[in-house]
UniProtKB/TrEMBL annotation:
Gene3D superfamilies hit by this protein: 3.30.230.10, 3.30.70.240, Elongation Factor G (Translational Gtpase), domain 3, P-loop containing nucleotide triphosphate hydrolases, Translation factors
GO molecular function, one term: translation elongation factor activity
SUPFAM superfamilies, sorted: EF-G C-terminal domain-like, P-loop containing nucleoside triphosphate hydrolases, Ribosomal protein S5 domain 2-like, Translation proteins
Signal peptide: none
Pfam families listed in its UniProt record: EF-G_D2, EFG_C, EFG_III, EFG_IV, GTP_EFTU
SMART domains recorded: EFG_C, EFG_IV
Keywords recorded for this protein, A-Z: Elongation factor, GTP-binding, Nucleotide-binding, Protein biosynthesis
Domain Tr-type G residues, every copy: 1-256
Annotated CDD domains: EF-G, EFG_mtEFG1_IV, EFG_mtEFG_C, EFG_mtEFG_II
UniProt entry tagged with the keyword Nucleotide-binding: yes
Protein name: Elongation factor G
Lineage start: Bacteria, Bacillati, Actinomycetota, Actinomycetes, Micromonosporales
Length: 626
């Protein structure tokens, strides 16, 4: 078995490659195309309308006696959280690169995500049939932008590739694979030397390395994340797909065979559709049977598995059980969320949950009628359950319902899904998530909390130092000595300080980028309590922030624009008007750091400025002073 994801920058060809894999393995009877809107994995109406992948879709197929569980992930930066949750449950990944562009901004972003989870990867350089495609340039971009050691296992030729490991020539003259003897001795020697530099056993055979030694060494280097096997082809023309499937089996890891261990399965996605509520899980250990009762150790709650479904995008097949390594959907679970671990009550287990990205863009929503307003909270709750990178809150000042997400496109898709659910809503103009930060701190700010209301009183005194912290985040420390503030009260002070971060003194935005140190304090023999010190921490930090030098931060994005050379001057002027700072420019592309608030509607403006020929991509680049 192989559990793998297809990762890439938007429009690199992930979905087309997945379609070719499903057709070649017999999982589908015809080849789907993104342009025709008939692909298996992009089954949502919005995906077919926009021509991009929005939701991670799972499919299964068989190749040479192995079951492949594939997850086709989005390439657009707004849906990076779908990639994050998928990577948490995968054993390996195929990273697709555009043969012309090489490593692009979102390619780099998904690569770093895979690094975080230690997922072994192989690379497929796609679209080598396009004018300007260059395998060597794509390999250089892997070295320079990602810092990896590529093991180039194929050489491109007209209509096919040379398999350097098997010393064969593979061609697809009529869309069907033809195999002939023949190799590329110089390229094979370069591959052997690259492997020998990293693998001792291969080094011993350098100069007379067998195919089996080379293949085994490449597998071990891939699984250890010391090197990356690189293959090439054209998914659209079905060139290079069969050797890619062989490489998945040869080089990517299988689920670890742990024997019969107690059940441990991780929920990574929840989806509501025609089948009702489906909970997607990866089984790490043990066996999950239909009708079984499973245990959520964090919530202390039991749930019953009604059905187990083998998933083929939007089609499903019932199975009786799932074993270690399986990725399946469960029907019948009522409360499990992404990140929930399913185990047994006798052997409770909690696995590390996927990291959820922080929302950056918000829109205000209002139901158009009283009935719509009544239904809105329930439908929003279902949306957030499906996609934890969305969040919903009520603005304390305006009373408006705010929907937040990773970017303008993600929020737009969510609002469209609301309307598809039959809820008529009015959406306000998107707003970005500003922050406030400390640029000049204060020391020894003393705050005394005293309250007498007839009964037991409250007394707490704290002395706080507040200093700027590099980047975003919050740190709390205590240097109190001599027991002047007991340990349990110190924890209460920290809790109060965290509560004070919700609203800054400048404009009420959340506060980040500061270090708070409790240096001293005082207690009362009768009136001190955790509640009193929590209040002292909250009001004391608010007073300290009023005395600090503060600044507003705004989210910024790295924007890469590709446009014809004759339009580049207008593009640069427009980026400058949007407060963008150009960081690189060459030929027909420009990269700039632009405030996220200035990018709303940019796609339409760029199309009109470049007569429809300009494209751009973005990725979050943190916060900068507004």
């Amino acid at each position: 078995m192989r559990n793998l994801g297809i990762l890439a920058h938007v429009d690199a060809g992930k979905t087309t490659l997945t379609e070719r894999i499903l057709f070649l393995t017999g999982a589908t009877y015809k080849r789907g195309d993104v342009q025709d809107g008939n692909t298996v994995t992009d089954f949502d109406p919005q995906e077919r309308e926009r021509g991009i992948t929005i939701f991670a879709a799972a499919v299964s197929c068989d190749w040479n006696g192995h079951r492949l569980n594939l997850i086709d992930t989005p390439g657009h930066v707004d849906f990076t959280d779908e990639v994050e949750r998928s990577l948490r449950v995968l054993d390996g990944a195929v990273v697709v690169l555009d043969g012309v562009a090489g490593v692009e901004p979102q390619s780099e972003a998904v690569w770093r995500q895979a690094d975080r989870y230690g997922v072994p990867r192989i690379v497929f350089v796609n679209k080598l049939d396009r004018p300007g495609a260059d395998l060597d340039a794509a390999v250089r971009s892997l070295r320079e932008r990602l810092g990896v050691t590529p093991l180039v296992a194929q050489s491109p030729i007209d209509g096919g590739v040379v398999d350097l490991v098997g010393r064969r020539t593979l061609t697809w003259p009529d869309g069907v694979l033809h195999v002939a003897p023949g190799g590329d001795p110089i390229a094979r020697q370069r591959l052997e030397e690259a492997v020998a530099e990293l693998h001792p056993a291969a080094l011993e055979e350098l100069g007379a390395m067998s195919d089996e030694t080379l293949r085994t060494a490449m597998r071990e280097l891939t699984i250890q994340n010391k090197a990356v096997v690189v293959l090439c082809g054209s998914a659209y023309r079905a060139v290079g797909v069969e050797p890619l499937l062989d490489a998945v089996i040869d080089y990517l890891p299988s689920p670890v065979d742990r024997g019969e261990a107690p059940l441990a399965a991780l929920v990574f996605k929840v989806q509501t559709g025609r089948q009702g509520r489906m909970t997607f899980v990866r089984v790490y250990d043990g066996t999950l049977a239909k009708g079984a009762t499973v245990w959520d150790a964090v919530e202390g709650r039991a749930e019953r598995v009604g059905r187990i479904l083998r998933v083929q995008a939007d089609r499903h097949t019932d199975v009786d059980r799932a074993t270690a390594g399986d990725i399946v959907a469960l029907a019948g679970l009522k409360a499990a969320r992404p990140g929930t671990t399913l185990s047994t009550r006798e052997h409770p287990v909690v696995l590390e949950a996927p990291v959820t990205a922080e929302p950056l863009v918000s829109v205000a929503l209002e139901g158009r009628t009283r009935a719509d307003a009544h239904r809105l909270p329930g439908v929003l709750a279902a949306l957030v359950e499906e996609n934890p990178s969305l969040s919903v809150r009520t603005d304390s000042e305006s009373g408006q319902t705010l929907l937040s997400g990773m970017g303008e496109l993600q929020v737009e898709v969510a609002v469209t899904r609301l309307r598809e659910s039959g809820v008529a809503v009015t959406a306000g103009r998107p707003r970005v998530a500003y922050r406030e930060t400390v640029v000049r701190g204060v020391t020894a700010l003393t705050y005394r909390h005293v309250k007498q209301d007839g009964g037991a009183g409250q007394f707490a005194q704290v002395v706080l130092d507040v200093q700027p912290l590099d980047g975003v985040g919050f740190e709390f420390a205590s240097t109190v000595t001599g027991g002047r503030v007991p340990a349990e009260y110190i924890r209460a002070v920290e809790t109060g300080c965290r509560e004070a971060l919700a609203h800054g003194p400048l404009a009420g935005h959340p506060v980040t980028g500061l270090r708070v140190t409790l240096t001293d304090g005082a207690t009362h023999v009768k009136d001190s309590s955790e509640m009193a010190f929590r209040a002292a921490g909250r009001f004391g930090l608010r007073a300290a922030l009023e005395a600090c030098g503060m600044a507003v931060l705004e989210p910024v994005a790295d924007v890469t624009v590709h446009a014809p050379a004759e339009s580049l001057g207008g593009v640069l002027g427009d980026l400058a008007a949007r407060r963008g700072r150009v960081t690189a420019s060459n030929g027909e592309s420009v990269t700039a750091l632009v405030p996220l608030a200035e990018l709303f509607g940019y796609a339409t403006d760029l199309r009109s400025r470049t007569r429809g020929r300009g494209t751009f991509s973005t990725r979050p680049a943190g916060y900068r002073p507004a």
